[in-house]
Description:
By secondary structure, chain A is α+β, with helices and mostly antiparallel strands.
Amino acid sequence: xxxxxKTPSHTSRTPNTVLAGTFTCAWCGLTVSAATVDxxxxxxxxxxxxxxxxxxxxxxxxxxxxxxxxxxxxxVLRTGDWMVIHRxxxxxxxxxxxxxxxxxxxxxxxxxxxxLAQPPFPLEAFGDx
Amino acid sequence: xxxxxxxxxxxxQRTRRPQRHKDVLHRRGGHRRHxxxxxxxxxxVSLDAPGTxxxxxxxxxLVSLHVDRRVPxxxxxxxxxxxxxxxxxARPDGEWMIIHECQSxxxxxxxxxxxxxxxxxxxxxxxxxxxxxxVAHRMLLRL
Lengths: 129, 143
Ligand SMILES: [Zn+2]
Ligand SMILES: [Zn+2]
Ligand SMILES: [Zn+2]
Ligand SMILES: [Zn+2]
């Protein structure tokens, strides 16, 4: 929990998106402030929930892929909180990140119910769920 | 029934039968060539699944094993951690994909469901965001 040592606001270690104050959404073009209201760092666009592959989550450093990452699933933590699963359209990398309070709730909810809209078998048999 | 008659006719040649296809999960020991034992529920699973070319998770509990065979020489090949079904995703064509998460290294992977996967386990996974969370409730109230 040493979150204070790696949060410089204007160092120039890495170019643009990772540490800068704002980033431009790779999908809808919105200019997004990287910091959220509650002080956490945003990694996806609150409006369309798309992200960009700028961090190598295995090596820990920046990634040179820079592919667009589209949201493909909603996962639930043991705490009940939602995570959004992103998939990079260039390299297929999958990541999971917490949702933010101001993320587009309609998009998140639509993604959460999407599998149920096209089930591989009739859901009537599970009526008592 | 006619199939059985056909098989019994062939039975005598079984020892000379040529190998069909080589499998990466090929194992020595007590199991048959195309079987593996699930690390989640200990079920003996046959690798020949209907509706899928390569089974990569248990049809009963959906647990998988972290052996990455898509990228040869991949760093994760040696992990062998237990991969649990984390969430369900729907591809643009509607096909269900299980998102697996490795309990040892955190790696995520997306895998197609198989024709004989436990339907109840699949539906439970798909319903998780709506059932096991107060987030959904709060969101629906706000929409
Ligand atoms: Zn956007
Ligand atoms: Zn990528
Ligand atoms: Zn199992
Ligand atoms: Zn692993």
